[in-house]
Amino acid sequence: MVYQPEFLEHLYRTMLRIRLSEESLVEPILRGDVRTPCHLYSGQEAIATGLCATLMKDDYIFGNHRSHGHYLAKGGSLQAMMAEIYCKEAGCSRGRGGSMHLIDPDIGMMGSAPIVAGTISLAVGAALAASIRKDSRVSVSFFGDGATGEGVLYESINFAALKRLPIIFACENNLYATHMPIRECRVNQPISRIAEPFGIEIHSVDGNDVLQVYEASRKAADACRNGNGPIFMEFMTYRFRGHVGPDDNIQGSHTDIRPKEEIAMWMDKDPIKRFEQYLIEHQLMDKDRLQVIMDEVTAEVRDAQAFAKMSPSPRQEELLKYVFA
Questions:
Q1: Residue 320 belongs to some domain of the structure
Q2: Is residue 293 part of a domain?
């Protein structure tokens, strides 16, 4: 496959925006400047980047508790996301939602929520609406391996299969549901096989290879647009940081039971480093150009942090402004 240089740069820049924005939150979280629980996406950038690169602006995506990457890859404002993480009025949810409640309907990011599997049925509803309207929109539901223990996922797959809905079920399998290794909570078989009884197309993809993610997702999105959905995709990946926050072993809490050898093995599969190596080896981009992009994204993230810190907090008298009974 021959890719345009502009497209390759877009993929690289998007992954960097996700990684650097995530890493810029580490110290503010540790200092207590950021108080909303933050589930960092570091290590999983290739999935959101590769899949969202196949989508149109008005296609729908629905996220979960670890959705900074989904929001940014779909085109969400970095400044608005940072402001939301700092719970400021300029945030994408007006500072009322924090890290786990990101939304921007204008670019198809229809929302994220911390309830495990909580947005899967909503994504199916959006796909049903698209099917009824016949507007060729695709809906994507991002969820983790832990969501495979929730009944709503199977109900949603069944309904989507019955109605042949244009939806991609995107399972980001990072091998741990909170702190429980996957081997302790499900039988030893690929997660993608859970969709087999519903008679739909399934894929298991290296989630740390952005081009493999893109190619598999492009075919899936095209299939959905042509009336051949739904599609179930399992992306194998690994989070570099703790389940919530930078590290699960700080402040006297030692809950990260992941073996050091396992962490080191996955660090060697860093999706950004792998893509950099690919670009250099194929003479598609040199180190100088990569550094320029790194510097530009670093400045963008720094500006977003400054914007968030300087933005005003919601006013106390408006505490109930967006609460409905």
A1: no
A2: yes
Q: Would you place residue 184 in the very low, low, confident or very high pLDDT band (cuts 50, 70, 90)? A: confident
Query: Does residue 323 fall inside a structural domain?
Result: no
Average pLDDT in the 168-174 region? Answer: 97
| Global model pTM greater than 0.90 | yes
CB contact burial 142-181 (16+ within 10 A = b; e otherwise): bbbbbbbebebbbebbebbbebebbbbbbbbbbbbbeebe
**Averaged pLDDT of the chain:** 94
For the cut 90, the answer to whether the pLDDT of residue 64 exceeds it is yes
pLDDT bin (cut points 50, 70, 90) of residue 50 is very high
Q: In whole angstroms, what is the distance from residue 98 CA to residue 82 CA? A: 9
Specify if 114 maps to a domain.
yes
Give the range of the structural domain holding residue 147, as residue numbers without chain letter.
5-240+256-310
Distance of CA 283 to the CA centre of its chain: 29
**Overall number of domains in the chain:** 1
Q: What is the CATH number of the domain that holds 42?
A: 3.40.50.970
Residue-wise pLDDT for 238-256, tens only, equals: 999 988 988 877 666 666 7
The pLDDT value given to residue 242: 87
Residues 126-162: tens digit of each pLDDT: 999 999 999 999 999 999 999 999 999 999 999 999 9
